[in-house]
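Session log. Operator J.P. requested a structure for one protein chain; no other inputs attached. Running the standard single-chain path with token output.
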Amino acid sequence: MRSTFGGIETAFRSLQSHQTALNITGHNIANANTPGYSRQVPIFSASPPYTIPAYNRPTAPAQMGTGTQIEYIQRMRDRFTDVQIRQETTSLGRWTARQDNLHQLELIFNEPSDTGIQNALTGFWESLQDLNKRPADISVRSVVRQRAVILTDTIRSISEQVAQLQRDLDQEIAIKVNEINSLAHQIADLNNQIGKVAALGDQPNDLLDQREELVQKLAALTNIEMTSDHMDRYQITISGRLLVSDNGNVTPLILDPNPGRQGLLDVKWSDNRENVQFRDGGVLGLLEVRDQEIEGYKENLNTMVASLIQQMNMVHAVGYTLDGAQGINFFDGSDATNIRISNEVALDLRNIAASLNEEPGDGLNALEMANLFQKPVLNAGTATYSNYYASIISRLGVDAQKATTMVENQSVLVGHLRNRQESVAGVSLDEEMANMIKYQHGYNAAARVITTLDQMLDTIINRMAV
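Structure written below.
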């Protein structure tokens, strides 16, 4: 016959298990609004049964149960959804970076508007047409010079703002790279802590949640690939190169100024100085805008302005000023970064060469200069200045719209995946309250069993001999 005290041990295990379950429920309720927290569930199982000793077999028809125990605490998480969220978050990070900075580029060009290059080109062209009609009128010449000043100032200002945006992106890339290094070290530290807990056979649930939050932040910055070992420690790589090892080591990224690109920063691995091959993520989006988009728009603008300087000066040099001089340039400079009207024109309005035959009333050269804006001199003789510039702005608008569309699509997809994960890992206060009542009743029932057994023992010990 089993000892009477065995029932107390069974009830005591029930008390312990339900008390632990209540503590877990309280932990869930406390973290209902904690970002990245995964709901935890106690997994009950029957404790090992007691076999009544006998010579050949137990004398009872079955093994005697010994109560319950919490076998482990389950972290409610869909790992496959986590992988999907990381992948889509990486793409969202890239397109968000592109959208933000292409929108900034649109604001710099500010087209269509009264203060953009297109309007300044039109105003300068119209002033040359007026000069053709009244070439000797000083007031008309003043308008030509003023419209030229507006055009050159606008071009230089936009060129400098574009260059400044490129420098700002360079600094933002540096910040993001430092953030990658910081996240990598934090993940490595959590790897070590998780490994120590897992080695003892426990579930480091809260540490796993903390690490997953860091991994999601890292995924927004760059493409990552992950594997885990038997102790659930992550090994993280970027395009095949090791960033975080499962034993806690980190290969940080470094920033190296490139003298061939005006000191713009290259992102390299610290161990071999090779360029990091980003394939997706926020850093790639910044690099694409800095090195491809902005560089391309700068080159296009410089090409247009360099042609304008060259063509205008060729035509202007052939004409005659009001004093009969030839060979004077209208513009100085080589491209959009340094275009300005020439000193001769800036100092004396009479130096505008509007004539082709030295007569003050002849405005044929002014007409030739105006006609330059109607001639296809760009793109191998297929585009006028206005058309060429309009194509630049159109392409920028298309690129910005594509980035906006991709951000909207990716945001919807990431939001859907997060909601799906939340349906598994999120804390429902109603469910937790129901669990709390259930575990409370279990605890009270176990306590009642102990009270009953205490009364039985009191009868045996204190009353049977009476």
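Operator note: The first strand starts at residue 40 and ends at 46.
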